[in-house]
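Suppose you are handed a protein chain with no further information: no name, no annotation, nothing but its sequence. What can you learn? This example shows the usual starting point.
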Amino acid sequence: MAESERHVTDRVNHLAVKLSHDLSEGDNALYRVGDGSQATDHHLVCTRETALNRDLSEADYGAVVFVENGLVLWNEDEGAYNVVVDDETVVDLVAP
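A reasonable first move is to predict its three-dimensional structure. Written in structure tokens, the prediction is:
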């Protein structure tokens, strides 16, 4: 995640620790995540839950998840990176 700036608008794979429960106040679930290398906040934003990415919403705080094909975007308003989890993204629980 330390290299996220280089990957804005790219689809990438991430191994991340889920650092929050759903923080959203709207339609898209929002979870703070990290891997220990980031200096800037990162969030996984689930815009479309599917059977292949449902592990994100079901994983507990502190769980390790593997995100395959997440879209990295910069959120200027929040000063953070958002990794979009949609119908092209697979999320697997690695460690509960």
